[in-house]
Design brief:
It comes from Pseudonocardia eucalypti. The protein has 350 residues and is α/β, with parallel strands linked by helices. The protein is built from 15 helices and 11 strands. It has 2 domains: 115 residues, Rossmann fold; 192 residues, 3-Layer(aba) Sandwich (Rossmann fold), CATH 3.40.50.
Amino acid sequence: MSHLDVPAALEQRDFEQLVLCRDPGAGLRSVIAVHDTTMGPSLGGVRMRSYPDHEAAVRDALDLAEAMTYKSALAGLALGGGKSVINADPTPENKARLLPAHARYVASLGGRYIPGVDMGTTAEDMELIGRWAPVVSSRSDPSASTARGVVSAMRAALAWLGTDRLDGVRVAVQGLGNVGRHVARMLHAEGARLLVADIAADRARAAAGELGAEAVDGRDLLRADVEVVCPCAAGGVITEAVVDQLKARLVVGAANNLLAAPELAGALAARGIAHVPDFVANAGGVMECEAEIRDDFSTLAARVDAIGDTTTTILRRAAETGKDVVTVAVELARAKLAANRADRPAFPTS
């Protein structure tokens, strides 16, 4: 992997702000990426994990923040795209030291970035960050809304492919954390036949027992003989090698940045495999975060279910234009941003 030229990356990808945070006393090394605030303050989770090096943490923050911009724009939310990453294992000891230090950097942005739950963090962690940050989301767990949106996207994509129900459809669910577990339960309730895998084998066995699913090795799951592959854990799992070996006819999941490289969207299309961009399918969680910030949940379920309509629009436009679905989805999101750029909000917003 080539060295990351940060100034060039910010320019080429139209980033507004990147904050590299250090607190030697606490041992903090973290990143806050604000991609775009055209539609409103940037919202994105606080990811806490150990990276092979700090450049990998910066790359992840940039990729995730940009995807959040497109996710919020396509979902019609008054939010922009951001993300923050704490480069450390999410142990209780590390959280006690690092979350307050990170929260002070979040607070210094004056509302331009709203943190939420992500990999390695919880609603309780957001309560802690909220002691310093002016606005915090995910004080309740948005996983069920994320899962509901993924299932809505899956249902719509299967309908596009000619299958009008999930009953009897074979689905491989990778990752059984908060979101993946909800996805698996929702699919089971609709009669899907499930293969499941998780890095924690006992969690996969428990889900298999609960849902009548087949637990398989994670290395085999993405190549299984199923109709749908549904990654719900870490991103980057759809690699060139996986694309070549996929037997599924649809890839849709909750994992952020599930393609290892953007050009793999075209590779999937070339093989005739339908694909719903992750920032379309998993937008239910950010919809719930926005509802929480506004304290209005009255239309949340209907808006999450409308992810299916967005999915159909993107699949149809991709078929009409010959472009891959990621290109189409990004174009639609950027068009929304361009139409609203003159009305960019002022900060702080709290």
